[in-house]
Structures are given as structure tokens and as C-alpha cells.
Amino acid sequence: MDLLILMAKRSWRALLVATLTGLACGLAAAGLIAMINHSLTVFDQLRPMDGLYFGALVLLVAVSRIISDISLLRLGQAAVNDMRLHLSAKLIDTPYAQLQRLGKHRLLAVLTDDTQTISQAVELVPVLLVNGGIILACLGYLGWLSLPLLGLTVLLIVLGSLSFNWPQRKALTSISRARELKDQLFDHYRLLTDGSKELQLNHPRRQHFFSRLLLPTSQQYRRDFVRGMSIYAVVLNWGNAVFYLLIGVVLFVAPRFIDLSVSLVTGYILAILYMITPLSELMHAVPTLGRASVALNKIRALEGQMHSAEETLDTFAPTRVRSLVCRDVTHTYYREREDGHFTLGPISVTLKAGEVVFIAGGNGSGKTTLALLLTGLYRPESGEVMLDEQVSSSADNHHFRQHFSAIFTDFCLFENLFDGDNPKLVQQAQDYLVHLQLDHKVQIEQGRLTTLALSSGQRKRLALLSAYLDDRPCYLFDEWAADQDPVFKHFFYTRILADLRARGKLVIVISHDDAYFGLADRLLRLEHGRLSEAPLAAGVALEAQS
């Protein structure tokens, strides 16, 4: 039912056409059964015209089923595609801090596994509607043959359906538990890939990971899933047995109480035998539909936790920035190693365009959290972060964020550098590929990088190139030079920062490289969540090293 609602929202007209053609296919199929039964009783009196009628019914069955199948297939896949895009758009609009709380593993499980499960269920909808039409038409034909036999058939179908209710609920419960465990499995797979180096170097940790985490979760998932599908297997085979029992009742029991002719019984058994296949297909679809129902519930639950900010997402060019102001900004978060909460702030500082500002501090002092606050990815719990006293990170967060280009320690590199084939941007990019010594490995074709299969240091240099081409008013670099060779580290501090400063950009650099602190216009130190101004080393100017 949920799948039909999902498809109906897409286009009720297309769904109506597909349903009507499916019913037409069912009626035509029942007509074929009636005609076959009639032809068997008057075999010696058949005319050529009867063959034409038969051929027309066969053609009607084929054409109506093709139209219904294709219509529903296109409609169903369009609905699933809309759902994927809706989820992806909502994920992008969800605040970064909220996404961190949800976890990558849950998001990936929904976007991959749950949408795939729903897609498989949608592919069954054409089969369900056509088979439903066939069953209704066959029941109508059975009623035309004998109302008492129709009543007996309907009674057995109702009793069979009632007997399926309790096992189906048990099966859904097991499948729901298995789906919850799949979130844990995705998290374990994330650890398996992200921590492969650590697991290979540390055998006890590897043993613990497999024996205490991955193995128990995987085995419990298998048990729950097999239990649910096994219940479905029992139900399906019992359903098939019911119809063969029905044939046995008509052959061996009903004649003792009802006057039945041979032709009536022949027609009845033909109709029942013809119904068994569509009924079997309907029942075999039940497990897939059950899993799809669980997946839909999971998606709805996740959507309820993704609180998208109500923002105007119109395309615009970031304006020139004169200052970035923090007023009494605070942010509290949980730190595992201290088993408690850490409060950053209150922080009040004004950063101006054309400045290169270094932020230094020990591990765990809150530097990266401050970077996320300054760029608008985190919103302060109290206080305010503003650009030029006008654009607030809290009130107009999307607009605020578009003024920043940042490279964080856990950066992600995209192939696309810019749209189209802008000659000026291409030339700038090629020049910097040479300076960064990447021109022999990477080329730019139609605004895209030809490869990302590089070392971590090389990928970071490409991220620097991408950020440079963004040409945003504000730049933030979080420990960019930490894993670079001395040559590239020197190039970054003396050439890149000098160029951005000369272009009037506000540049914020989080760094431990105290040898380069003298190149900054200002040095800020962050200790225990408190920010303070620190004196600069004497005698070194940024321009002097460029």
C-alpha cells in the first residue's frame, strides 16, 4: 500500500492507466479460460471464427500486459528516483553537526540498501496488479460457473489469509531487527576500510574486531533474517497447498453435497490451476514487500531526524568581505577521552580582509571546532558569528557559508574543478599544477581532473588548487602543511598565502609550524577553549619571502 501511495504521488493518471490495462489483461485471461473450457465441451463444432476470437483474446492479453508492465515500471522507477533525490537533497541541506550525530553508516545504509530494497519492491508492482486482475477475473468466472463453488473458494482464501496474519507479523519483526543490525554492519564495514592499516599492524585489535564486533553482529543479522524469511517460506508453501486442497475438495467432497457436471468441474479446475501461478507470484512478493515496508519506515525515521534549515538556496556570487566578527561565541561538545563535555568560548574576535591569521594551540584545544564555527558548518549555541555585521551564520547560514573556501584535515576531493572550459581558469589551474609538481600526473579536461589516484600529500595539493580556484572572500586551512614536503610547505606559506593576502582575502591558517608564525599578520592561541592574541616573531614579513 505504501508503494502504491508513493507511485500515486508521482502521477495518478499513469497509475490509473496501468491499473486499468492490468485489469483488462486479467479479464482477457479469464476469457481465455472460459473459451478453452467451452471449446473442450463443443470440440466437434468449433468454427474458424472461434479461432479468430481466441487469437484476439491472446493479443489483448499480451498487449494490455505489456502496456501495464512498462507504464508501472517507468512510474515506479521514477518514484524511487524522486525518493533518492529527495533524500540526497535533504541530506545536503541538513546541518553538518546533525549529520555527524546521525553517522555515515546510517546514511549510507538508507541511501544504498533501503532504496535498493524499495526499488526491488516497485519492480514487483506491475506483476502484482496484473496478477490481481487475473485473480479477480477468474473468481468472476468461477461465480458464473457455480455460486456455491465460488463461496467455497472465497471462504478458503479468507481463512488462508487470516492464517497468514500472525506468521507475517512475526516475520516482519525478525526482518525489522535484522534491518537495525544492518546499521551496525555498515559501521563495522566503515571501520574495516578506514582502519585497514591499523588492523593489519595490530593482531590483537584485529582479533577483537572480528570476534567481538563483526562476527556477533553478522551472525545475529543472519539469524534474524533467516528466521523471518523462513516463516515466509512456510506461509508461501502452505498457501500453495491450500489451492491444491481446494481442487481435492471439489473432486472428492463437493459432489457428495452439490450436483456438479463434468464440464463444470473441468472449467472450475482449469480456472483454479490458472489462478495458482498468479497467486503464487503474489505470495512470493510478500517477503519483498515486507522488507520494503521496513525500509520505508527506516527512511521516514531518518527523515524525521534530518532537520533541514529553511534557507533560500538561490545561486549568487559571494560579495567582498571586510571583516569576520565573533561575539561571545560558545559551543559545547562531548569528548570521549575525557568522558565529559568541553566548552569552547566565549570567543570574541574580529578578523579583517587582507589579513593572514594563524591559529595555534595544543591537541584538543578546540581548533577544528572553532574552524567549523567560523565557516558556518557549526552554529554557535550562544553568541554570533557575522560577516560585515550583516550576514549571520545563524540567521542566514547558507549565504554565510558561500563566502568560505576551506580545506579541513578530513577533506574530500572532487573531480570537478569548475564548470565548462574557461580559458582563464584553465590557464591558472595549469600554472599551479606545475608549481605543485602535479602536471605530470594530472591533467584538466573540460574542467575536470583526469585522476584522483594519488598519494595523500598530492591529493591535498589538488585540494589546495581547487580551493584557490573557488576565489572566495575567506579561506581557511586546517593543518594543510602538516604532511607536506618542505618544498611544498614553503611554497604554501610564502607563495599561496602571500597571493591570497594581496588579493584582499581573509586567510585563516590553523598550524603547528611555529617556524612560519612570523609570516602572519596576527597570531591567535587557543588553549582550553579560550582564544587570546599572541605576539609575533620579529623581523619576518610575508612579502619578504614571496
Automatic annotation (TrEMBL):
<dbReference type="InterPro" id="IPR050095">
    <property type="entry name" value="ECF_ABC_transporter_ATP-bd"/>
</dbReference>
<dbReference type="GO" id="GO:0016887">
    <property type="term" value="F:ATP hydrolysis activity"/>
</dbReference>
<dbReference type="GO" id="GO:0140359">
    <property type="term" value="F:ABC-type transporter activity"/>
</dbReference>
<dbReference type="GO" id="GO:0043190">
    <property type="term" value="C:ATP-binding cassette (ABC) transporter complex"/>
</dbReference>
<dbReference type="InterPro" id="IPR017871">
    <property type="entry name" value="ABC_transporter-like_CS"/>
</dbReference>
<feature type="transmembrane region" description="Helical">
    <location>
        <begin position="231"/>
        <end position="254"/>
    </location>
</feature>
<feature type="transmembrane region" description="Helical">
    <location>
        <begin position="260"/>
        <end position="277"/>
    </location>
</feature>
<dbReference type="GO" id="GO:0015833">
    <property type="term" value="P:peptide transport"/>
</dbReference>
<dbReference type="InterPro" id="IPR003593">
    <property type="entry name" value="AAA+_ATPase"/>
</dbReference>
<dbReference type="GO" id="GO:0005524">
    <property type="term" value="F:ATP binding"/>
</dbReference>
<dbReference type="InterPro" id="IPR027417">
    <property type="entry name" value="P-loop_NTPase"/>
</dbReference>
<dbReference type="InterPro" id="IPR003439">
    <property type="entry name" value="ABC_transporter-like_ATP-bd"/>
</dbReference>
<keyword id="KW-0472">Membrane</keyword>
<feature type="domain" description="ABC transmembrane type-1">
    <location>
        <begin position="14"/>
        <end position="291"/>
    </location>
</feature>
<keyword id="KW-0547">Nucleotide-binding</keyword>
<keyword id="KW-0812">Transmembrane</keyword>
<feature type="transmembrane region" description="Helical">
    <location>
        <begin position="54"/>
        <end position="75"/>
    </location>
</feature>
<dbReference type="InterPro" id="IPR036640">
    <property type="entry name" value="ABC1_TM_sf"/>
</dbReference>
<dbReference type="Pfam" id="PF00005">
    <property type="entry name" value="ABC_tran"/>
</dbReference>
<protein>
    <submittedName>
        <fullName>ABC transporter ATP-binding protein</fullName>
    </submittedName>
</protein>
<dbReference type="InterPro" id="IPR011527">
    <property type="entry name" value="ABC1_TM_dom"/>
</dbReference>
<feature type="transmembrane region" description="Helical">
    <location>
        <begin position="149"/>
        <end position="167"/>
    </location>
</feature>
<keyword id="KW-1133">Transmembrane helix</keyword>
<dbReference type="GO" id="GO:1904680">
    <property type="term" value="F:peptide transmembrane transporter activity"/>
</dbReference>
<feature type="domain" description="ABC transporter">
    <location>
        <begin position="324"/>
        <end position="544"/>
    </location>
</feature>
<dbReference type="InterPro" id="IPR005898">
    <property type="entry name" value="Cyc_pep_transpt_SyrD/YojI"/>
</dbReference>
<keyword id="KW-0813">Transport</keyword>
<keyword id="KW-0067">ATP-binding</keyword>
